Protein: Winged helix-turn-helix domain-containing protein
Amino acid sequence: MTHQLTRDQARRIVVRAQLLDAERSTDVVGVAEELGAIKIDPTATIAPAEHTILWSRLGSAYDPSVLRKAVETDRLLFEFEGAFRPVSLLPLMLPAMRRWPTHPRSREWLDGNDRFRNEVLARLRAEGPLLASDIPDTAQIARPPDGWSGPNQVVPMLDFLQQQGEVAVAGREGRHRRWDLAERVYPADLPEYEHDEAARLLNERRLQAAGIARQKSPWTPVGEAGEPATIDGIRQKWRVDPQALAAVERDDGGRVAFLNPYDGLLFDRPRLRDLFEFDYVLEQFKPKPQRRYGYFAHPILMGDRFVGMLEAEVDRKNELLVVAAVHELLPFDSEEDEMVRAEIVDLAEWLGVDVAD
Structure:
């Protein structure tokens, strides 16, 4: 059976799947379980991505120390590829990690640096956990600069070993990762899955987090997970999470949410355009004269529509949240204006600052 949905229904499915409906979540690990990944990024005009993503779901009750405890002490979350993920996903990821890399150039670099690889593992075994700066660069072959990392080959080697499941991030010192052997970071009693079964279950988890996704989307790959669906006015075929369909007719009115530019809801840009009619562009890397809404403006979601952009920055010296502008994509009525202002006050309260006059 193919489900026939309106765009309104599809948007409500997405908002609920992303835990941005009226009823706020209450638990950091529970949010991670539902979202699958919480992006890590240090850009902190307001707060780093991992914290604003959780605040937008949990509200002012969110305490950043709870995230750190879940990652570094309780080991209920782990860091991988620039995001915190629930440990329940790890056994589904390990079969693909054990086959990595599949790209010939990456394989050649690893094979050519076999001695370096063994030296990094030996040092971690003897002295870990360590920062990358604690490990000597003895690479025989250097990777060409990629614009993101410098000439030191320790960081790419650690990233490669993490991709293979050999090493893991044990914690952070400020924004710097501390590395250790994966066997000392990951739980020892994880279930085992064959590669195809793990891939199928991983697609189901991706669809659970998305709610609905294009059947052949490179942004949100879900394979044959869920059930087929069509959306009024859109030609492409979709897959929908059957559990999300149970509450598709329930419209609780939603709430206001400020989304960090690296929030997972914003990742699938084609889906944003199709369902939300929101053509989102991150202006962080644009020259200043070309910016329309500011360096790191946060999209404003109201219910199931994007209505504006919050251009704001924390002034830590004066303990103020300075709101440069609230850019209205759709004109606010008095009630909507009041809702946005109330959310700004809540944001400042969570940050421990006042709103600048």
Observations:
- The mean pLDDT is 95.
- Residues 140 and 283 are 39 Å apart (CA to CA).
